[in-house]
Design goal:
heterodimer; A: alpha/beta; Rossmann fold; six-stranded mixed sheet; 10 helices; about 40% helix; B: alpha/beta; MetI-like fold; D-Maltodextrin-Binding Protein, domain 2; five-stranded mixed sheet; three-stranded antiparallel sheet; about 65% helix
């Protein structure tokens, strides 16, 4: 279970100054849940994601994993136990696909044979068996994102963090990789938090959606709850595009 | 031509070996300092700007000046350490050259390290953090490997610069391929000059290619290529070490270092001294092409054991005297002063004088009716004067110009060799010449008289380092030089180095001089 309890965060000049990135944010993600964090640019959703593996440390409040405050834990060790997929994949360009995937086990000092076996297993999981020795530059966008996913999962984490993982992909690839992610989430019984600014994607993939604005939580609920009882005009407006698309799609498909 | 080439080839192991060791040591030290500095600066932009600025500033100092500046600095440090800890170190030769070249090699490595690390996409650094790397792991596993090609390019630039600039370490007493170039320029031995240039260029090329191979091996993570580059570098080091092996074994005996300033007469006299002392059972080596005051300071600091100096130079440049008490009194005062202030022994005068004099082309002097400096003063405003690099800043010149009211239309500086040519070709009308120089007659120049006796005498005198002050054996071995070389003989020997037909090397000229001296003794 991930618990974010009354967290505030300000960037820029220490103490006073810069605009608040997060103001008194509280959010809980139960084990096994797929949560989507959604909101306009600058609403604090990526900052919130970073709180969970200490890429961001809160100014006030605390973050707990499995009931333990993470502030006292070693940041590097903590991050090795949590999968993280970056917006633009963030693969290491000087390492092969296999070496990229093996990075976290390597940092954790796994035996070579075990790492090797894990890499093979993950390449199969993301359907890239033949690509072990390729360099990242030789891959398509979708392939890169799947390697990033495999790298995030290498050390068998229970938590997977995704920062707009499909942002740079074309619609077809996007759908394909999204289905892979959803599938893997279920099969590995992960607790997944995904940042997105695409409400349609959130509605299709997530168990629960947390809508953010100006560093604060506006509403959190299942897709059904959000659609049935939007908290305010802002949430309704965000749901407008998927709704219109759904109607148009239904019309097109049943015509 | 053929003889020159063979002589150059024979000197190659020593010159090349020392050049390689100096260059590689400076490069290694430069990398060892600037790589960590570059990494630190890449993380702290506030440090980067002043650091790069400083390194850039060093680069703007001409190589020769930078190298020369390190000699007095190290000498002062050595004296300080002598006072504080009871031991000094050699401030001449390897150490100042190493320090200056290390500084010189830093800019490209530093700049490329900072640029390469700063150019890494923030997303990749975040990814390294995200997979659980510590800052150190991020640096070693991700940032440095990504920056390696650009850093390697910087190292290659530094290597080429260092090999090139190391040729300039000759005047501060470090043997290098520059010895060919400096000696060659002084004695008009173009084979030597070319030989030195080509050897330095080839060395730079070989090092550059070996580093390129290492870089490519790193980039492709190809072990064979890395190994090949490492073997190549090791071979270069081993070859240069082996060429130097005889020298250290000699150094264990008390080896006498004979100093020579940067002109032909000094080379000949150094070779003559070496031959004589060799016969007396001494092992000797020469450090030639030393700057004028560097030679004196090196002797005072016991870093060379003996060299030939000129009385007038000491009188004006070291003792800062402007009065002219007459030759005998002057020599006595110099000997007294040397002993009192430095413990240096004046082991006698050689018998000739190498004075600073002004010279003109004989036909032109005749046409203008100029025979003395007084006559020259009348025409000076419409004439051009050329001097060597020291002349115009020497007190003798200021005193002379003041005494005769000499004010020329223009003044220029030349390498001594080109100075005589400039006078012969008419590029300048008057030059500063040396009275013992064979080229005065060779180029049809006439010496102008000094009726007011402003210019001091420049008797060639043999100076011996303080540590030999009570070395009766050495002083006895040097005694036969006392007053034995007359001016015409020295002029002829000097002219052997520069006469257009059948030019000889300093060693050959020294041999010729030695034979003449023996004949003279036999009579």
């Amino acid at each position: 279970m991930i618990e974010i309890l009354g967290v505030s965060k300000t960037y820029g000049a220490r103490g006073a100054g810069g605009p608040a990135a997060l103001t008194n944010l509280s959010l809980t993600v139960p084990d096994g849940e797929f949560l989507a964090l959604i909101g306009p640019s600058g609403c604090g959703k990526t900052t919130t994601l970073g709180l969970i593996n200490r890429l961001v440390d809160p100014d006030a409040g605390e973050v707990r994993l499995e009931g333990r405050d993470i502030a006292g834990q070693d940041a590097a060790l903590l991050r090795r136990s949590i999968g993280y997929v970056f917006q633009e994949a963030g693969l290491f360009p000087h390492l092969t696909v296999a070496e990229n995937i093996a990075m976290t086990p390597r940092l954790m000092g796994w035996p070579k044979a075990e790492t090797q076996a894990r890499v093979t297993e993950l390449l199969a999981l993301v359907r890239l068996d033949a690509f072990a020795q390729r360099m990242p530059a030789q891959l398509s966008g979708g392939q890169r994102q799947r390697v990033a996913l495999a790298r995030a999962l290498a050390a068998r984490p229970h938590i997977l963090l995704l920062d707009e993982p499909f942002g740079a992909l074309d619609p077809l690839t996007r759908d394909e990789v999204a289905q892979d992610v959803r599938d893997i989430h279920r099969r590995l019984k992960l607790t997944t938090v995904m940042v997105t600014h695409d409400m349609t994607e959130a509605l299709l993939l997530a168990d629960r959606i947390a809508v953010m604005r100006d560093g604060a939580l506006v509403q959190a609920g299942t897709p059904r709850e959000l659609v049935a009882h939007p908290a305010d005009g802002f949430v309704s407006a965000m749901l407008e595009t998927p709704r219109r698309r759904a109607v148009a799609l239904a019309n097109a498909l049943h015509a | 031509m053929d003889a020159s080439f063979r002589e150059a080839l024979a000197l190659l192991p020593d010159y090349l070996g020392q050049h390689v060791l100096l260059s590689l040591a400076a490069l290694a030290l430069g990398i060892a300092i600037s790589l960590p500095l570059g990494i630190a600066a890449a993380r702290r932009p506030r440090l980067a700007a002043p650091l790069l600025g400083l390194a850039g500033l060093v680069q703007t100092i001409p190589g020769l000046a930078l190298l020369a500046l390190f000699y007095p600095v190290l000498l002062a440090l050595s004296l300080l350490s002598q006072d504080l800890f009871g031991f000094g170190f050699r401030a001449l030769g390897f150490l100042p050259a190493l320090a200056a070249l290390t500084l010189y090699s830093m800019l490209p490595v530093l700049r490329n390290t900072v640029t390469a690390l700063a150019g890494i996409e923030p997303a990749i650094r975040r990814a390294a953090q995200g997979v659980g790397m510590t800052p150190r792991q991020s640096l070693l596993l991700v940032e440095l490997p990504l920056a390696a090609p650009v850093i390697m390019a910087g190292i290659r630039t530094a290597a080429v610069w260092v090999v090139g600039t190391a040729t300039l370490s000759t005047p501060i007493g470090q043997t290098s391929l520059g010895n060919y170039i400096f000696t060659g320029l002084q004695t008009e031995n173009w084979v030597f000059v070319l030989f030195g240039c080509v050897a330095a260029a080839l060395l730079a090329l070989v090092l550059d290619q070996l580093l390129a191979l290492a870089g490519a091996g790193l980039a492709a993570r190809s072990r064979p290529r890395l190994i090949a580059a490492a073997i190549g570098l090791l071979l270069v080091i081993a070859a240069s070490l082996s060429s130097l092996l005889p020298a250290p074994s000699n150094a264990t005996q008390s080896r006498l270092l004979i100093g020579a300033k940067n002109f032909g007469e000094q080379y000949i006299l150094a070779d003559l001294l070496a031959a004589r002392l060799g016969k007396a059972g001494y092992v000797t080596a020469t450090r030639s092409d030393l700057g004028s005051s560097i030679a004196f300071r090196a002797l005072a600091a016991n870093e060379i054991d003996l060299y030939v100096e000129y009385s007038g130079t000491l009188w004006t440049s070291q003792m800062h005297r402007t009065d002219m008490p007459g030759r005998a009194s002057m020599l006595a005062q110099i000997a007294q002063w040397l002993k009192q202030h430095y413990g240096i022994v004046m082991a006698g005068r050689l018998g000739f004088e190498n004075a600073y004099v002004l010279a003109m082309r004989a036909d032109r002097a005749q046409a203008l009716h100029i025979e003395s400096l007084s006559d020259l003063a009348v025409h000076a405003p419409s004439l051009r004067i050329g001097g060597d690099f020291e002349f115009f800043s020497r007190p003798e010149w200021r005193a002379t110009a003041a005494a005769y009211g000499l004010a020329f239309a223009m003044q220029r500086q030349y390498q001594p060799e080109f100075l005589y040519r400039a006078a012969a070709s008419g590029d300048v009308d008057v030059i500063s010449a040396f009275s013992s120089d064979g080229r005065v007659a060779g180029y049809g120049l006439t010496l102008l008289a000094d009726p007011k006796a402003v210019l001091p005498p420049y008797d060639a005198i043999l100076l011996v380092a303080p540590r030999h002050a009570h070395d009766t054996r050495l002083l006895a071995a040097l005694h036969p030089f006392e007053n034995t070389i007359p001016l015409p003989l020295m002029q002829q020997a000097n002219f052997l180095l520069s006469r257009p037909s059948a030019r000889q090397t300093p060693a050959q000229a020294a041999q010729w001089l030695e034979q003449r001296l023996e004949q003279k003794l036999a009579h």
